Structure formats: C-alpha cells, structure tokens
Amino acid sequence: MDQHWVATDFGGLDVFRLDGVEVAPPAPGQVTISVRAAGMNPADFKHIARGSDRSLLPIAVGYEVAGVISAIGPDTTLASGGGAVGDEVIAFRVQGGYATAITVDARNVFAKPPSLGFPEAANLLLAATTASEMLHVTGVTAGDTMLVHGASGAVGVSVIQLARLLGARVIGTASEGSFPVLERFGAEPVAYGEGLEERVRRLAPEGIAAALDTVGTDEAVDVSLALVTDRGRIVTIAAMQRAEGDGIRVIMGAIPASASYRDAVRAELIALAGEGKLVVPMARTFPLSEAIDALTLLSAGHPGGKLALIP
Known about the structure:
By secondary structure, the protein is α/β, with parallel strands linked by helices. It has helices at residues 43-50, 118-122, 125-138, 154-166, 179-184, 196-203, 218-227, 240-246, 256-274, 291-300, and strands at residues 2-7, 16-21, 30-39, 59-60, 65-72, 88-91, 101-105, 109-111, 145-149, 169-174, 188-191, 210-213, 234-236, 249-250, 282-287, 306-310.
C-alpha cells in the first residue's frame, strides 16, 4: 500500500498523520506518478492552520512533486505534450504531494528537464510562478530599480533571478547572514530593520520603480509606500490587511486571475530551469516519514534553502 500525509483537523503540526492509501488508477486525462521528491512550502502548513471547513477533512498535504509516470489514462497527453510510463515529470498544482504515489490531472504535469534533479524540480513551480506573477503585475522591465522584501526566501530568490533576466536592478532586504545568497544571484543586499528607508535611498538615489513584498511586515509596506510613487507597482503576498487599507496590490493562488497567470507560465519557468537560468537552492532533504521534522524546520523560518521529502 502507498502512503501519504494528511491533516486530520485544522491546527498545528500535531494534526498531520501518515496514512496508508490506495492510489486510484488514472482515468482519461490523468496520470499516476511514483513520487521521487515532494516539494515543501509554507503554504503546506499555513493553509491547515487557517482552515475552518471541516467537511474538507482529512486533507492530503502538498502542492508540488517530481517523479516518474507509473500509469497513464486512456487518451491522455501531458501539459507539455506526449507522455508515457517511465517519463520523468514535474506536477503542480496538485493536492496530496506528500506521498509515495499520486494520481493527478495530466494538465498539471510537465516533462522534467534531465538537467534538473528531483528535489529541485519538486520545489520549482510554486515559488517561481508566484515570483513571476509579482513581476508581471508590477510591470517590471529592463532598467527598473526594484526593491524586494525578504529576498533570501524561496520566492525572493526566484524574483531576483527572473528580474535579472528582464534586465532590472534588484535591491533586496535580508539579514546580513543571508547577504551571500542575494549576491550569488545578482541582487544588492540591504539589511532590514530601523533605518531601512534611508539605506535604500542611498543605494538608489534615482528612486525605486517597484516594490515586491514577500514578508508582510509593517516595515516592508511602510518603506514601499515611502519609496514607490505608484501604488499599483507595489505588490504583496503576505500583508493582506495592509494591502486593502493602503491600496496596494495583493496576489495569491486562490484568486482566479493569479491562478490563471501562474498556470500559463509554468512551461516557460521549467524551460528556464532546464537551461540553468532559474536555480532552486536546496537546503536538505528528509525521508517522507520525517515530514513533521521537516515541517518544524520550515515553520521556524530561514532553513537556508528549499526542503524536499523523499519517499
């Protein structure tokens, strides 16, 4: 029998449980994937912590995986074209990726570039599609100087790389210990904390064209408002209440426009990763059975890169 992690209730990590599961065979338009790595994201536990509709329980956990097709439904083609048993693939947006196997809609499955390892592939798309949308809605283009709050996190690192490909200059906030990460990908680091606005102004006396917030602190929003004239070029994925009150953009996967954009850009991002132009820094992997330990590290913040579960 296969295994998967489920949340049996809404709350903390104590509601997560590893269960046996009979994976359904693929219907037309579906494939079954033997999971080689499950990507891990803060959303995996935050959505459980904030949930309330108990009719949805138990909830299978995990939104992205990489693995090998073990079965394919009749008349089925992957999102990237083709598809056969034995193909190495990436799947996102799925439900229940913390598993040994999973049956998913083929429209969410793409061929994995051979150059991309399974742990990296499993952690590519949630962060990268979010980063791409942040750049899209703020209209970042060549020659822009932009500010990224929380630039050393997974979304921030993807933002830096995609912005640099566009020809933009990136100033990123981080702790001093994370400065080498930002410098590795071509951003100019600046320490968050008291005096942040003045430090950014010294780095960019010509002004900041756009601000992208991945952390949701009042400091990030206040500094963005002080530095960016056009509030339509400030976006957050974390400060929802501030966004409503201050008239700045907010995006999230549950918003139809966000979901549509992110789905449309997946193939392009996979191609960039396959060419080595979009890197997924990894911190470590954990056996699938140790998901609670991995989630504990992830929820503490600053794991130093992405985490993956290996069945």
